[in-house]
Amino acid sequence: MATNEQPLTLISATPSPFARMNRIALILKGIPFELQNEIPWQSETQTPKYNPLEKLPILLFPDGRAPVYDSAHIQEYIARKYADRGPKLLTGDVDLDLDIGQIVVLAEGLMDAIVLSRFENRRGEDKISKPWLGRQTRKIEGAMRAFGEIVKARVDAGKKYLVGDLLTNADIAAVCAVTAVDFFKAQDGWDGEYVELAKWVRGLEEGKGFVETRPVAFNITEVVV
Ligand SMILES: N[C@@H](CCC(=O)N[C@@H](CS)C(=O)NCC(=O)O)C(=O)O
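== Glutathione S-transferase domain-containing protein ==
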């Protein structure tokens, strides 16, 4: 690390699996950064100031250039910009990186479905749309089935990681999404159904970057839906 390196700022939320991906990458690469924890659903949040989509994570630069948002976009930037520090997180091979990107997309879709069903559930029994909730549940179950199959195939092949032989953005995204299923209680009994997946996630969760970023609940006091 350059001694005079100014820290980046990551707008984050303590339970956010999206922001967690970026936090893990920054920690693993040893990049100085500060966390600005927000509750993006509350009126006092700074999030809309930096992202018209009003979502976090958002990466702010010390040189004042435009903020960058969307976790996958930030994650790719971290991997490319700091390719010479810590684990590479991308392979540099176009086809393997396509596989990594696909797993990141699957993880993001799973996390989106968890967030949507969580808020649908908060609407109150008389307002919940059962078909909408069912749609999100199908996505969650489908993504978990896919992760179960992906991980089983890799474990059966004697591989520790999802793509190639080193830790990548695919592993980080998968762990963040699957642990969010647990944290938000989005699918009961998945760990009994996908035993290899549960074991694989538990193993990575003990590593540097993962331990420090385990999700922590926050308290939304305003009505969101
Ligand atoms: N596609 C976005 C999704 C991020 C996202 O949904 N973040 C949540 C917090 S976990 C958020 O800020 N939601 C506020 C909103 O949707 O208005 C990303 O990957 O960064």
